[in-house]
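ARCHIVE RECORD
Type: protein–small molecule complex
Small molecule: alpha-D-glucopyranose
Source of inputs: curated submission
Record status: active
Notes field left blank by submitter.
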Amino acid sequence: MRWWKTFGAVSLALVLVLVTAACGANSDSESGGGDGEQVTIVYARGKDDTGSTQELVKAFEKKHPNIKVKFKEMPTDTGTSHDQYVTMLSAQSSEIDVMDVDVIWPAEFAQAGYLQDLDRFILRDNIDMSQYIPGAVEAGNYNGKQWAMPKFIDAGLLYYRKDIVKEPPKTWDELIEVAKKQKGKKGTKSGFVMQAAQYEGLVCNFIEFAGAYGGRILDDKGNVVINSPGTVKGLEKMIEVVKSGAVPGNILAIKEPETHTMYKEGESVLARNWPYMFSILQNPDESKVVDQVGVAPLPKGDKASTAALGGWMMGINKYSKNKEAAWEFVKFVTGPEGQKISALYSHSPTYLPTYDDPEVQKANPLYADENFVKGVSAAIPRPVSPEYPKISEIIQVEVSNALSGKVSAKEAVKNMEQQLKEVVK
Ligand code: GLC
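STRUCTURE (tokenized, with ligand):
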């Protein structure tokens, strides 16, 4: 099957930059984890609905009996989590040692001095960064330094009920048609569900619609190019989906957790979500649709099928008092053993050799398809900027206004252009 787009070249330059930066790194004071000394580190991440965190911590502690990992649960919503981290880290708190970092945060966190740069550790422990998906590595790289290690990569996917539709819809128009026609079959309440609440996930869904019709936010040089016929068309299609009558009535309040909860209950024919949902759907303890769900690329517009690039990295708090132990944990989770555990819970590995593991391929058939890696590698990143929270806020507000009918797609796109030009100079 040739669904996915072609894979970009591996960036050797990035590896060179890392090595150079590492040689010049100064050595911060650090402790913990060495020579049998007992230490406890605090690891923060958003609520984990898959159960992978517990397994990762268990396996790590078994291997490192002198390091205990205390888990601190952060909010599921990435924006709410972000704000809590900023409050903590801007006060130079050492409460947490390791944290999961959304791919959109490293530039901002690095610039603000919240993260420990990892080049020295990477070099010392011979971590071969060329073994990782380049886009995932790049997301943690800012101003020539690596601030976070890639943990898992996300790209928007289309989920479909194999027992209701034979083939997944190939275009957004087809999706609307199928969703309307099949809604109600086999006890479903909706034809399609996606994330349309006003939060970060809305930006991802918007990028996918816009991209499908050739629209982009910034060009390769960082210029604001959002005001194009492609973006307007994409947003119009998004509005059409929201108003189709085939989505849940509360679509403007739906985020990822509502999506997977509905879908595992068998309430929707089609859904847009990240790869993690697959492991929930295959868990017989909680899912009513085990083995009934297929996964495909998102539908095409008149230009392409596009997925937004998401994912999570692991960073070390600049003010951590246990940096050595923190690094051991980061190294484990982002290394071969940790990546395999994550993959068994459908968190898509960033460490490429993990995809060849037969157990991993069995857990999620997507991982056996080499085109999956090409697909996630071709996903569209959100703008990389220390000002990203402002950029996101502008998009969230305007897209929401368009979806709720306060402004037209054209007006929303024009408003975004104007405001983004103020932020991205
Ligand atoms: C997923 C993605 C993350 C994105 C978020 C939006 O967690 O991995 O990058 O920001 O969804 O809700």
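CURATOR ANNOTATION: Residues 155-307+382-423 form a domain with the D-Maltodextrin-Binding Protein; domain 2 fold (CATH 3.40.190.10).
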